[in-house]
TrEMBL record:
Domain of life assignment: Bacteria
Source organism: Paracoccus gahaiensis
Protein name from the UniProt record: HNH endonuclease
The keyword Hydrolase is assigned to this record: yes
GO molecular function: endonuclease activity
Keywords: Endonuclease, Hydrolase, Nuclease
Length: 92
């Protein structure tokens, strides 16, 4: 039986039946094509891209640690961590 992956941002499990996507730590349009990616809940991924511009992601917020600690994202990670893994409400 395969181990269920955990979202490195909200720290909730990502079961196979939950919407998920891969995030390029450096955006593809900013030189990250073929670079490292991380598996995230789709809602977590969407929140990153609704909150931060590609340039900021490429220059300053290109690690899991930087994403977790970013002042515009940290409150969301704390909030979503209290929701069930399949929660897919609207992103802000």
């Amino acid at each position: 039986m395969a181990e269920v992956p955990v979202c490195p941002l909200c720290l909730r499990p990502i079961p196979a039946d939950v919407p998920q996507s891969r995030h390029h730590l450096i955006p593809k349009l900013r030189g990250g094509k073929g670079g490292p990616t991380v598996l995230l809940h789709h809602i977590c991924h969407k929140t990153i891209h609704k909150t931060l511009r590609e340039t900021e992601l490429a220059r300053n917020v290109n690690t899991i640690e930087a994403l977790r600690e970013h002042p515009d994202l940290a409150p969301f990670w704390a909030w979503i961590a209290k929701r069930p893994p399949g929660f897919a409400g609207k992103t802000r």
